[in-house]
């Protein structure tokens, strides 16, 4: 019992006791055209960019892009959490801040909520803190220009907070999605539903397997009953989520097809274990579920390296969550793009081991028949 408790504590709490964000991907775009002064040309956007990229902490990981469109492509592919953009007139407005205090230089922050809500918000908080550093740079440049110059109250206010922040959200998670965690909960419910159905079918069909004359009968029976189970489970989950809980499912048909594929992979993996180990496989299936509860709700950048490499990198439930996020929160995502190739590999392996388990089932059936035929 002590060993079991320790395993559960490590798996459930050890991964998220002190979640620390690191290497959150951000796209930096400097479209600033600079400004030509009397004796010099200055590009404040480049000055700001150099300082940010050189002095950045481990929390953020920067990628630089020449245009906003290129950076948006990065976000829509789910590869970055935000864009930090300096527009074309950034230097012009910064230099002319005293003359035109109402025209403050602008920083555009575009947040990609759909990738992972918690990570996107943490990234935005870090970028807001960086904006304070940009404010300081603009303040210093402006104060150099206005030494011994009388300023109006409006000019003083503009110097105190020279930079204006514009916030935009793309791939928003929307209402009634548990802050973007609906894909996690749906995946966990599907995993448990498939397990309960698989265990019931396994127990109820065990005797019929041994009496079946066709050696392929057990596999065919499991696949047919499994397909019906998955169809019922997936339809019930999505209808309940949309109609009762109010979860917005933008493409219901694609989501059903996607979860049918995921559910089938879950089914063959679980039944491969059940066929070889019997109900002794139940603790393994349930442990995978329990260990997934904390780590699927956190961004991968928050997890310890050990947890990421030893658990998160291969756990089947992870691929379902990532695909559902794309279907729920991103536009123009096909079912085939949402499905990770590893799911097909898991499905092939599960189906292969289910097929190999026929050898075990058929051998047991022959042994039982021989035992019955022997005279008492």
Major sheet details: 5 strands, mixed
| Mean pLDDT rating | 83
Query: What is the structural class?
Result: alpha/beta
Secondary structure: helix percent: 55-70%
Spatial arrangement of strands, main beta sheet: 4-1-5-6-7
Kindly summarize this structure in a few lines:
With 376 residues, the protein is of the alpha/beta class. The chain is 62% helix and 10% strand. A hairpin with a 4-residue loop joins β2 and β3.
Note down, in words, how this protein is organized.
The two termini are about 45 Å apart. This protein has helices at about 1-10, 45-55, 70-75, 90-95, 115-145, 155-160, 180-210, 215-245, 250-275, 280-295, 305-310, 315-330, 335-340, 340-375; strands at about 25-30, 35, 40, 60-65, 80-85, 105-110, 165-170. α7 (about 180-210) runs antiparallel to α10. Mean pLDDT is about 85; it is low at about 365-370. It is of the alpha/beta class and about 375 residues long. It contains 14 helices and seven strands. A five-stranded mixed beta sheet has the order 4-1-5-6-7, with helices on both faces. It is elongated, with a radius of gyration of 29 Å.
Which secondary structure elements does this structure contain, and how are they paired or packed?
Blueprint: H1 2-12, E1 24-30, E2 35-36, E3 41-42, H2 44-55, E4 60-65, H3 68-76, E5 82-86, H4 90-95, E6 106-112, H5 117-145, H6 153-160, E7 164-170, H7 182-211, H8 217-244, H9 252-277, H10 282-297, H11 305-312, H12 316-329, H13 335-338, H14 341-373
Parallel strand pairs: 1-4, 1-5, 6-7
Antiparallel strand pairs: 2-3, 5-6
Helix pairs in contact: 7-8, 7-9, 7-10, 7-12, 8-9, 9-12, 9-14
